[in-house]
């Protein structure tokens, strides 16, 4: 891309009418996403490929898209909901993520972090959206059919992008291949979501009866409850409110489970390869936490006091500019959704000179765009959070036509603030207590898929760090540990046994 014209065209066999225009040209991106946005809706072909998502925000255009967006903005900014989801994130960190990392650290076990983070985000989003915790994040890490179902659905969508439509439609008609797996996956996903919707309706009915008698618990502020309250009596969603809720909920799962979990994987991988960045994040976090002293007069907030940290999270998190910059940098190098597809309604000529029409599928490669020297400089392959920080100490704003990573999955549905907050919370909880390193020899490469998974997963080892307490190093007994020197600014590591 860099050596060429930033854009090239791929044509399929003549009978397929398949034409792909792949581009990383910022001028093309600005033209399509901003200047001539009205000519580039998702369209019928997009909806065909993403058929399994129904009429969620990913698939719809025009008024329905505006309604989805209005609802998401309204509910995600609900003050009670904001408090609710932050509490649920920390609750899952404290009761799910930390006990497992403690266990594997003390036992010297390997852990597959891509699976672990996927379970964490699935449980968290399920709790926040549906008010139901499936508890997939537990010590034995059991298999759950819905995990495979979501993965199979994702693979089917990707497959529909890279083969002629006549091929996958023929497979769908015969009920074979990826289309068969996609159909079976949809049944599993629907059973799970519709079951939660039915349970929530029954809960709301009983709660309504209880309130009439002035007894009974108050309903929560999960998104399902808020959506049901908002759409009750609304004519904007048609005659099937459960179908609308199903499509909406599935969009949240697609936006959150895979994209946030892979973003976490690539972030910790980059930290393992760049210890100087990890040291700066820890230093910034130490300063912020020292300033956020507990109201009881505690001398210092200790890493494993998650109840205190969760209460102080907003105060601490808002000050972590370098951490925020590091997250932006990780998304630049490894965007969770590596490409974005568009197609014009009317024939058009792009700034690059390429002519496109309704038969042209335009694909932006965010993965390539994040590594262009013309946009990011000669050090574009380096993990360098400093490039995002202005002299004023604030985060640099980069126009969306030059940086599309934040416009991919997490931001589309969950909102940039919520997705980055989840990532920040997990990072804060982990880096102060654990030393995460990839298993030596395990290949870490991107997979070719709708979401930028690690092709072979992320096998890692987690070791407990020493906690500085009143000038002493608290050493766990019974096994050897790798520790970092407690001196500020010192990067030496050493081994001590119990």
TrEMBL record:
Its cofactor is heme. Heme binds at residue 413. Pfam families: p450 (PF00067). PROSITE patterns: CYTOCHROME_P450. GO terms for biological process: lipid metabolic process. GO terms for molecular function: heme binding; iron ion binding; monooxygenase activity; oxidoreductase activity, acting on paired donors, with incorporation or reduction of molecular oxygen. SUPFAM superfamilies: Cytochrome P450. Belongs to the cytochrome P450 family. This is Cytochrome P450. It comes from Carnegiea gigantea.
């Amino acid at each position: 891309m860099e050596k060429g014209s930033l854009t090239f065209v791929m044509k399929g066999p003549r009978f397929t009418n398949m034409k792909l225009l792949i581009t990383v040209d910022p001028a093309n991106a600005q033209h399509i996403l901003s200047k001539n946005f009205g000519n580039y809706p998702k369209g019928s072909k997009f909806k065909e490929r993403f058929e399994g998502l129904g009429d969620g925000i990913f698939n719809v255009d025009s008024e329905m898209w505006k309604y989805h967006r209005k609802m998401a903005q309204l509910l995600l900014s609900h003050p009670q909901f904001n408090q609710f989801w932050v509490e649920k994130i920390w609750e899952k960190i404290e009761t799910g993520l930390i006990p497992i990392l403690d266990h594997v650290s003390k036992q010297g076990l390997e852990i597959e972090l891509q699976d672990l983070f996927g379970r964490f985000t699935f449980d968290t989003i399920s709790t926040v959206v549906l008010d139901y915790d499936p508890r997939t994040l537990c010590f034995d890490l059991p298999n759950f059919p819905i995990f495979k179902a979501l993965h199979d659905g994702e693979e089917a969508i990707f497959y529909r992008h890279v083969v002629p439509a006549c091929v996958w439609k023929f497979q769908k008609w015969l009920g074979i291949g990826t289309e068969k797996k996609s159909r079976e996956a949809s049944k599993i996903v629907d059973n799970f979501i519709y079951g939660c919707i039915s349970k929530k309706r029954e809960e709301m009915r009983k709660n309504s009866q209880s309130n009439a008698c002035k007894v009974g618990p108050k309903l929560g502020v999960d998104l399902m409850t808020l959506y049901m309250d908002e759409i009750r009596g609304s004519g904007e969603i048609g005659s099937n409110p459960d179908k609308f809720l199903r499509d909406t909920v599935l969009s949240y799962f697609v936006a959150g489970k895979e994209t946030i979990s892979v973003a976490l994987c690539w972030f910790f991988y980059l930290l393992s390869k760049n210890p100087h960045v990890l040291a700066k994040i820890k230093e910034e976090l130490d300063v912020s936490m020292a300033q956020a002293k507990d109201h009881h007069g505690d001398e210092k907030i200790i890493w494993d006091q998650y109840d205190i940290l969760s209460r102080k999270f907003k105060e601490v998190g808002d000050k972590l500019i370098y951490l925020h910059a590091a997250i932006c940098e990780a998304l630049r190098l490894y965007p969770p959704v590596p490409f974005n597809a568009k197609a014009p309604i009317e024939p058009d000529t792009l700034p690059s000179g390429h002519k496109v029409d309704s038969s042209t599928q335009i694909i932006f490669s965010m993965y390539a765009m994040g590594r262009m020297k013309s946009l990011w400089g000669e050090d574009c392959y380096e993990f360098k959070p400093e490039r995002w920080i202005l002299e004023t100490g604030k985060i640099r704003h980069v126009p969306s036509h030059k940086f599309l990573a934040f416009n991919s999955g997490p931001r589309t549905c969950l909102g940039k603030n919520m997705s980055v907050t989840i990532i920040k919370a997990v990072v804060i909880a982990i880096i102060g207590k654990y030393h995460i390193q990839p298993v030596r020899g395990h290949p870490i490469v991107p997979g070719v898929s709708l979401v930028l998974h690690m092709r072979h997963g992320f096998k890692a080892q987690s070791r407990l760090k020493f906690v500085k307490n009143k000038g002493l190093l608290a050493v766990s007994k019974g096994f050897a540990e790798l520790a970092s020197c407690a001196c500020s600014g010192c990067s030496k590591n050493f081994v001590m046994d119990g």
